[in-house]
Amino acid sequence: MRRGALVLLLVAAMASAQERPRVRDFGLTIGVFPPGPRNAITDVAGVRVGQVTVWEGDSVRTGVTAIWPHEGNPYRERVPAAVVVGNGFGKFVGLSQVEELGELETPILLTCTLCVWRAADAMVAYLLRLPGMAEVRSLNPVVAETNDGFLNDIRARPIRPEHVERALDEAQGGAVAEGAVGAGTGTVAFGWKGGIGTASRRLSTRWGGWTVGVLAQTNFGGNLTIAGVPVGPALGRALFAPDSGSVVLVVATDAPLDARQLRRLAARAFVGLARTGAAMSHGSGDYAIAFSAAPAVRRRLGTSTHPASTVADEALTPLFVAVAEAAEEAILNSLFRATTVRGHRGIVEALPLDRVRALLRAAGRLP
Hints:
The protein is of the alpha+beta class. It has one domain: L-amino peptidase D-ALA esterase/amidase (4-Layer Sandwich), CATH 3.60.70. It is 26% helix and 23% strand. It has helices spanning 3-18, 95-101, 116-128, 161-169, 231-234, 259-275, 317-337, 353-362, and strands spanning 48-56, 60-68, 77-88, 103-104, 108-112, 142-146, 188-189, 192-193, 196-202, 211-219, 246-253, 285-292, 299-300, 341-342, 347-348. Strands 3, 4, 9, 10, 11, 12 and 13 form a seven-stranded mixed β-sheet that branches. Strands 1-2-5-6 form a four-stranded mixed β-sheet. It has a two-stranded antiparallel ribbon with strand order 7-8. Strand 1 (48-56) and strand 2 (60-68) form a beta hairpin. Helix 3 (116-128) crosses helix 4. It is globular, with a radius of gyration of 19 Å.
């Protein structure tokens, strides 16, 4: 497919998604802390997101989502990071080094299961071409995935280097496209169309003034629960938990946390996942990766010590609450924004928001 045609398809998909509201536009408030101005992971200063949707013929429905931790080169300015595994049936490239060293040295890529190695190879080639990288002989690409093999011809492994390069090149701050875009193009959640979703929370100065943002790639099962209301069972989709499902939660914050504290923060993202009714089934790869974008805790290349956190453990609780709220809302945004998609093995319908509204009103959750 020509690049121009691919771009038109991406624009069409984004325009279609714009017709469906986000959770807050729907009139629903999740949690107690307010969101940032964009209610997105990009509310954390410096964080950029790039997405490429790969939609070809009748069977390819996939893509790439790239998250840069700051505006510089993360290899030369490494950020503290940590990964928490909820259920490890997944292909998470780069996990062991992040766990061992407690830092991230590349952007984070999300894609489909059988494309992680192609995406990793393409990102390595891209980064090695950057200025100041001529002498680099080791690089730890971080690539996570979910299995979109129902809507996408995953065995074709359709992700190519140009898709990864565009996602990295075109990453920016500001609004983040949600729903059936990027790495969420072919995903399924709770039996309906899943996708990419994002949300953020901003703490008051009383609680440190920090921002926490979450980006979710949703492709898992369970009993969909919205604001405590068992929507899935009411709509006849109870216990829809295909073993091919997974979820990746990317957590960013400007709080100057170290890797140990970020591990604790990442773990609380699963609180938000649980609130949505996730089953975390046998075949699900459930991962949360958290990093701090704060300049004060970055480790510059050539230095051997990691800057210390300036946040006391006793001050973490508001951040824990914030990440749980943001994760829950990001997951719901992925469903609310996603549109019906026909693909490789059939069709997956979008969550019927008119019926959801009626259920939430009857439960007193909406005006």
